[in-house]
Write the structure tokens for this entry.
Amino acid sequence: MIVTSTRDASLRVTFKEAALRNAPGDGGLYLPAGLPPFADVAELLALPFGARSTEILLRLLAPEFRRSEVESMVAAAFDFEVAYREIGPALSVLELFHGPSLSFKDFGVRFLAQVLARLGPSADDADDADDADNGGGRRTVLTATSGDTGAAVVNAFHRLAGFAVVVLYPQGRISPLQERQIATLGDNVQAFAVAGSFDDCQRLVKSAFADPELARRAGLVSANSIHLARLLAQITYYFEAAARAAAAADGRPLVVAVPSGNFGNLCAGLLAQRLGAPIATLVAATNANRTVPDFLDGQPFSPRASVATLANAMDVGAPNNWQRIERLFADDAAAMRASLRWGSADDRATRAALARLAAEGYRCDPHGAVACDVLRRKLQAGEHGLFLATAHPAKFEATRDPAEPLPAALAAAAKRPLLARPLAPETAALRAALLDIAHRARF
């Protein structure tokens, strides 16, 4: 697979180069240069999830990775259930939260960890292997989280040799259980509670990667949805959605609603579509953070401060991955609007969607409820709708059943003490913290 930049179509790098560099350095993001559709989609859909995922990722990553390597990475990363449930005659859900952090982020982050563990140091790391400031070529996984990414990252990289983990999260703006998942492990993991919003966290992470000296000395690698390895891993469950819904859809067009915050998940769905996944339409569903729906409604694209909602992992006012979607549509807004459907649900609509799903016998998390609400409004006669449930409902106060015990992973996290450190939303503060971690190099 040849990889290019969303800002410079003439740039050409390999997947491994992209994985090590995080981003092109031109203000853009890495994106496959071209994805011709698979000729044997029917045969792929007949395979079980693991075998199909191996085949898809092998086709994307060969010859840089051998079949045996991809098989091993898929087996280690996707070692949990993907559940499908029917809610009504034209509505179903794909549950993506049965991994160790109880979030769909486990797909991308666990695969990313497998990829990075198999890559040697970059040229810069090799040159600086004796530099005490960069921990002898060790890597620092730096990520911002609005809730679920951080839990997946610390789980995937905890105690992984050669890696430190630094997670920034907005203080007081994620659920208490999400905070426990992120900020209680210790060892090679350091969580920072930022006095600000997720957009502040994301801005700080961007500033760190934009500083070449800091990136070199701290050995920075991204685990956010900007990383291409995460994007490729997410393609696999869109094929699973099509395979599992085929019987219920009975030949009707499949419409898939995607809870959207930073828009990496929707981007992966668009890539799956282009590879031939039989999905007629993708629905971009947001909460009250309407930057993208407003744009698709015809307004100028205008990033803004995020608004806190029940679906906190989607509280993003300046979505990083939107430029990837623009590039996929060659910056043609009319083509984008013709291909996609979109909508939003504020907290009142989210609560109503949760109550309706509960009455139908399905307990959902707020993010999935947003997707379901928008899907119901956008679904047309003669179509089958499927929404993605991206987090376990027990993670959120609004959807936790107090009569049910917590899942084991959450119960364990709830008992551990918080180890987060406060961080001002200032570039200098993060720079000092990263250099201190790299200098100590105790990982």
